[in-house]
Design goal:
- The complex is a heterotrimer of chains A (228), B (536) and C (120).
- Chain B has 536 residues and is an alpha/beta fold.
- Chain B is built from 22 helices and 14 strands.
- Chain C contains two helices and two strands.
- Chain C has a two-stranded antiparallel sheet.
- The mean pLDDT of chain C is 85.
- Classes of the chains: A alpha+beta (228), B alpha/beta (536), C alpha+beta (120).
- Chains A and B meet through strand 5, strand 6, strand 7, helix 4 and strand 9 of A and helix 5, helix 7, helix 8 and helix 9 of B.
């Protein structure tokens, strides 16, 4: 009896060590960046596809698009409302990244909303986005071979519940960037908003703009059923 | 622009009801509804539907907008009307859909609502002058229209009927401006729903004032406490038979301080105060007519829960295993996985009262004017939001004002007594005495005989006295001060009381007015009340 | 013989009390002032009853309003006593004043004579 018990314990212990070891090894196969540290974010990313310095390829769970995802960020999922998806037609995710700078907490966030907006009404939806978020009528526009990209940015702050938006980037470094990216071949659209919180959160305007545009230009919509 | 909407609440309810069969091509029906209610033809209008726009196919969103536009008569109003789940489904299915609030499909519905809104707004932009926006939604449609109103921030008023609440976390994710406000204030992207309530109440203060909820007493939806739910708005109108008991709440019972699932605001407590029956994990701990004190006194209700655990341990097995604090999480997880609560959902849907959720009851009771209105206002005393029964407050004010008026009138009567009556009585008595004096003076002999018998007849030497003249002292002293002083003191004391009550009413008005100032129609109502009462 | 003049005039004075029912007067006046005081009390009761409109009202504001009314109600007991006492004092004083008013001083001028025929 005693010997049997000892064996059982030994087997269980061994198995535990083995499982633990496999787990650890498994973990170490992942890149050592915040995006992969988080199990939920990991599900979207391809660990073998570091597409650029600081980005990994992100594949939407709708299967409708891929884009470059900044490695310091993690997709929010503490509450069920943080990440939502409806089949292949809608997806809403947010990601954030915080760091300490001289005892100040700096917070960076991205919110992405994927949906299908009929192309004929593109100007309606696009203009409404920029009017509401940045109080701007005509954003900047650029094109890639697959997408039309509208974007703009500004500096914003709150006085109580009143939001103030400053467009002159010479006066203030922008801390909110908004984009509307439309697929040339279908009705697929992504609305992307980036913002930062904290003094000195934005160190270099040009770098930030470049970084933002990099993400936008990386958006690639999948082919296939798009019109109903 | 007119102050009041051209469509009354009755008409709006009926149009919301009509929307369930779609509003496409329903111009005749809408004209009929309007004419029956007002006796006139409506101004020119155009109907826009999500169906016609090809919006909502994948999400199931179904909404319409009616734009009333008549340049000549200065009419420019648009009514957005959103419907909820298929009316043919029973309430169990409605709840099942409601459990999906905050999930992908529902988010896409809100996205589609925004798209429809943007399309409609573009189409009606050509109209002259500023357009006034109104919104109506029943059940899940109520949740949609309120959420849309909060995001767009430019509706004049929104009426949510037997509505499912807003989901705070969902709102944070769908309104980027709110999310921005939250992250700037909290430096946190994972703010709990409990904390979000406070932030939402501040951030959406203006929009809140435009939102009202209309609930049929006893209908099941508003009795549920979905996680992170928020009934945004300042006004609740209860319809129907106010003695009807409220329905079972399949959500979390808010007795644990740690539980942040239920908003702390009074509008939620109010729902419980109406006598909401609650169940714990859907397994039978039912609390009939929980008193407000019980609910607010969390430790007391905790004891009740512990009692139930002791008596029916098998009902709480899961929680006991996990420890009571964690048990809350377990129950919530059970709640958010619809399958686990399906039995209970069925129980609710089979209840006779579930039918009260239907739009027909909203229409019926509004028409019958069977209603009571409550306003959620900021209580100056406790510095918290409270639910004010406006009509009762009004009655209170009029009642007090009338009583004070009576008191002042009576006080004046007393003053009259003091300054005139006393002297009048005295003068009257004086006059009588003077008359009597005259009479006596006219017959001195008979007077002497009765007044001074002894001196009238002097038997001494047989002499007799004959009165020639009698003169009375006709100087009358005035009434002594001691007659007046006590009355003066009484008057002075009553005057003190009057001043006390007048000041009391004044202070009441100030506070009452301040509490209601967010609601324009009420604020002006109070103003005219003041004028009627004639104070200040 | 001696011609004695036994006719002479004189005066006599005194105080005469005209008939007056003091108790009757007292009761009547008491009725009057007590009626006025009672009316005031009734109005007060009406005011205190106002709190019933706030029965279902929550919040500290409503509570403060109710307690103000309750404080007035409590304070009234003392006032009511004072009114009773004051009314009594007023009545008694009034009655005494009016009663006194009925006691008038008089002076009679008379003629006296032995001979009745002298007296007319």
């Amino acid at each position: 009896m005693k010997k049997r018990t000892k064996t059982i314990i030994a087997v269980i212990a061994g198995a535990a060590i083995l499982i633990g070891g496999i787990w650890m090894i498994n973990e170490s196969r992942y890149p050592n960046v915040p995006a992969f540290d988080d199990h939920f974010t990991r599900e979207f990313l391809n660990k073998d596809k570091k597409v650029d310095d600081g980005f990994y390829e992100f594949k939407s769970k709708t299967g409708q698009y891929t884009m470059w995802f900044p490695e310091e960020y993690q997709v929010l999922h503490k509450y069920r409302e943080d990440y939502t998806r409806n089949g292949e037609s809608y997806e809403n995710w947010s990601a954030s990244y915080t760091k300490l700078y001289k005892n100040n907490k700096l917070m960076y966030s991205i919110n992405a909303k994927f949906s299908e907006n009929d192309t004929e009404s593109e100007s309606i939806y696009m203009e409404s986005l920029f009017k509401e978020q940045l109080d701007v009528k005509k954003p900047e526009k650029l094109e890639t071979s697959n997408t039309r990209i509208y974007y703009d940015y500004a500096y914003t702050y709150f006085r109580g519940t009143n939001q103030h938006i400053v467009h002159d980037s010479k006066k203030h470094t922008p801390n909110i960037y908004v984009a509307y990216v439309a697929d040339k071949e279908s009705d697929k659209v992504i609305e992307l908003i980036y913002d930062s919180v904290g003094e000195n959160a934005e160190s270099n305007q040009m770098d930030r703009k470049t970084w933002f545009l990099t993400m936008l230009k990386s958006i690639n919509f999948s082919e296939g059923k798009s019109h109903e | 622009m007119n102050e009041k909407p051209i469509l009354s609440n009755n008409i709006r309810n009926k149009i919301t009801q009509l929307e369930y069969s779609g509003l496409s091509g329903k111009e005749k029906e809408i004209k009929k509804i309007y004419k029956e209610a007002t006796g006139e033809n409506p101004p020119n209008f155009k109907i826009y539907t999500s169906e016609e726009m090809g919006i909502g196919i994948k999400s199931g969103f179904d909404g319409a907008a009616i734009h009333f536009y008549d340049k000549k008569y200065n009419v420019n109003e648009v009514y957005y009307v959103f419907r909820g789940t298929e009316p043919s489904k029973d309430f169990g299915d409605v709840i099942y859909d409601a459990l999906g609030i905050g999930a992908g499909k529902n988010n896409e519905q809100i996205n589609d609502a925004e798209k429809m809104y943007e399309q409609v707004e573009t189409k009606i932009k050509g109209s002259n002058g500023k357009v006034t926006r109104y919104g109506d939604g029943h059940s899940l449609g109520g949740h949609l229209i309120v959420t849309l109103g909060l995001i767009k921030k430019n509706f004049k008023d929104i009426r949510a009927l037997n509505d499912a609440p807003v989901n705070l976390k969902q709102l944070e994710r769908l309104d980027p401006k709110f999310a921005l406000y939250v992250s700037r204030r909290e430096h946190d992207k994972n703010v709990s729903p409990g904390k979000l309530v406070n932030l939402a109440n501040t951030y959406y203060k203006k929009q809140k004032a435009t939102i009202s909820h209309t609930w049929v007493k006893g209908e099941p939806m508003h009795a549920q406490s979905f996680p992170g739910s928020w009934y945004a708005g300042n006004k609740v109108t209860m319809l129907g038979d106010l003695d009807t008991e409220e329905m079972i709440n399949i959500g979390k019972y808010p007795f644990q301080k740690e539980a942040k699932w239920n908003p702390v605001y009074m509008i939620d407590q109010f729902r419980y105060n109406l006598g909401v029956k609650t169940t714990l994990g859907g397994l039978g701990f039912v609390n009939d007519h929980v008193k407000q004190q019980t609910l607010l006194n969390l430790s007391e209700t905790r004891d009740q829960y512990l009692e139930s655990v002791k008596r029916y341990p098998f009902l709480h097995f899961g929680e006991i295993k996990a420890g009571i604090g964690v048990g809350a999480v377990v129950m919530v997880n059970a709640f958010t996985s619809p399958g686990a609560t399906f039995q209970l959902i069925k129980g609710i849907s089979q209840s006779k009262q579930a039918k009260l959720h239907g739009i027909n009851y909203v229409v019926k009771y509004t028409e019958a004017n069977a209603m009571k209105t409550y306003y959620q206002v900021f209580d100056s005393g406790s510095q918290e939001e409270i639910l004010l029964e406006y009509e009762q407050m009004k009655k209170f004010v009029y009642y007090c004002a009338n009583a004070i008026k009576d008191k002042v009138a009576n006080l004046n009567a007393l003053k009259q007594y003091l300054h005139s009556e006393i002297n009048e009585v005295f003068e009257a008595k004086k006059k009588k005495v003077k008359m009597k004096i005259s009479r006596e003076e006219a017959s001195p002999q008979s007077f002497m005989e009765k007044a001074d018998k002894d001196s009238a007849t002097l038997a001494w030497f047989g002499q007799k006295r004959v009165a020639e003249k009698v003169t009375f002292d006709k100087t009358f002293d005035p009434l002594d001060d001691s007659v007046f002083t006590p009355v003066e003191e009484i008057i002075s004391s009553i005057q003190e009381e009057v001043t006390y009550y007048q000041k009391f009413l004044e202070a009441f008005f100030q506070n009452f007015g301040k509490m209601m100032e967010a609601d324009e129609s009420v604020a002006s109502d109070i103003k005219s009340m003041k004028e009627v009462i004639g104070r200040i | 013989m001696f011609d004695f003049d036994f006719t002479h005039t004189g005066t006599t004075s005194g105080k005469y009390t005209f008939e007056f029912d003091g108790d009757d007067f007292k009761d009547e006046q008491a009725k009057r002032i007590k009626e006025l005081i009672k009316k005031d009390q009734e109005v007060n009761e009406k005011l205190w009853h106002a709190k019933s409109y706030l029965e279902n009202q929550t919040g500290e504001f409503a509570d403060a309003v109710k307690s103000k009314l309750e404080a007035a109600e409590r304070g009234y007991t003392l006032r009511a006593q004072q009114y009773d006492t004051g009314a009594f004092q007023h009545i008694m004083s009034f009655m005494h004043s009016v009663t006194d008013m009925h006691k008038r001083e008089y002076e009679i001028r008379y003629k006296e004579s032995m001979d009745e025929s002298e007296l007319t």
